[in-house]
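Methods: example folding runs. The two proteins below were folded one after another, and each record is reproduced exactly as written to the output file, sequence line first and structure-token line second.
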Amino acid sequence: MKSKEVKIEGITYKVSSTTETGLKSAISSLKKSLKPKKPTLTMEKRKAGNPNLYKGMPSLNPTGRPKGAKNKTTELIRKAYQQLTEDNLQNMTVWLAQIAAEDPKQAMEMMIKLSEYVIPKLARQEITGNDGADLFSNVKFEFGPDINADERDQDWNQSETEDL
């Protein structure tokens, strides 16, 4: 049996074989296995989507689900949740009352969280004139007499006399 020590990148390997050609073959396969591999498609990050489709290509399913149409499974889950809620309205009232007895703040937070499933959140909208100007720039609010006016006037008068 023939053996040989091979040094590759500072590391010594002992290779053995029964023949000289087997020894050479073992050394070359050892060197190949230690070389850094080129990235393959499985190693690289693949692009999303079908590679056979290109931008601007007509749809393969022109009569598919229209925009805005809801998924059937999502609809079934929403209906089931709605039914569960409707069946437990009296229980929910009792549960909220129990929570409110211990912590009113937590009960209010629960009500707000539950309302998100019933009342949609409103999106912020900005109202402007035709030219984009603010519609409310000249709006003034006038309220009744200020109940703190006397105290403020006295404070103002005192600060004026101190400055002089």
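Second run, written to the same file directly after the first:
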Amino acid sequence: MDFEKYFELDRKSFIIKAAERYSKEVKRVDEGEKFLQLFDYDAVINEDHLIAAYMNAVNAFDEKSNIAKSIGMETMLFAAMTKQIGEAINMLGAKEGRPFVVFSNSAELYRRTAQMLIDIKDFEPNEKAQKSVALKYGIKGDMKIGMLEKMACSRL
């Protein structure tokens, strides 16, 4: 299987930004197929991590095998590589006063939230940080293949 094709999509369809400090005023949003989800900065490997999780979540809803009721939370489950919502939130949920990542498939939802964000920038973790976070998930070697395998295995 050519795993590279799995990651070939229009990245302009997603908004992935980093913000300096999380505040409880900023909330995740789910409106049908549109979502805005917040992740702990230090728990996200890279953009591919979030995009692969989202694609798996969409597939889970299509196949009616989803665990969560919303696409944003299902994305978090796949990103955390677990079936347990509480575990996913503990691992990946944004933490008060810490940097976080905003991931959305809706410019409208992002615009409504952006005014509450502090020091917004692109999410661009360096290679060392990516490898360090990947190791937290037990991923060694090729990160893309490792992420996909761990996400798939989390549903067995």
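Comment on the second run: The chain has a mean pLDDT of 91.
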